[in-house]
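Q: I have 154 residues here and want to know how they pack in 3D. Can you give me a structure?
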Amino acid sequence: MLEVVMWTDGSCNYKDRLGGYGVLIFYPGGKRAELRGNYSNTTSNRMEIKAAIEGLRSLPDKQSVIVYSDSEYLINAANAWAERWSKRSWRGVENQPIKNVDLWIEFLKEKYRHNLVRFRWVKGHSDIAENERVHVLANMSGEPIEDTHGVIPK
C-alpha cells in the first residue's frame, strides 16, 4: 500500500500563550499540502497534538501514514502512552490525571480511522528541510482561535 508522509510541529509563546501548528503532507504520486492554525490560551504540547490531529483529519479514511515530529511527547504518546491512558480511564503513573485528554481522545479517533499510522522522532533544528518548514508554519501569525482545553463555553 502506498504511504502518506507527514511532518508536524507545534509551538507556543509562553509569555502570551499564543501558539500554532504546522503540517506538511506528501501524498503518493507527488502531491503536497500544507496546513497551519493559530490558537490563544494554549501550550506547545497541545499544539504538537493538534498538528497530528489536523494532519490525520485531512486524509481520507484507511490510509497508511508515517508521521515525523521533533516532539518526544507526541511520539511517545502516539506510539504507546495514549492507548494505555485510554484503557486506564485517562490516568497515568500513580493514577494521576493525564493532561490534554480532550485532544488525546480526538487524536485516537483520527488515528483509528486509518489502516496504519506510524510515528517517528527526528531531532529538531537539525537542518531537515521538512522539519524546518513545519516549524515555520507553526510560527506564522494569524487570527487565533481560543483554545478551550476541552471545556465548552456557555
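Q: Anything worth noting?
A: The two ends are 45 Å apart (CA to CA). The mean pLDDT is 94.
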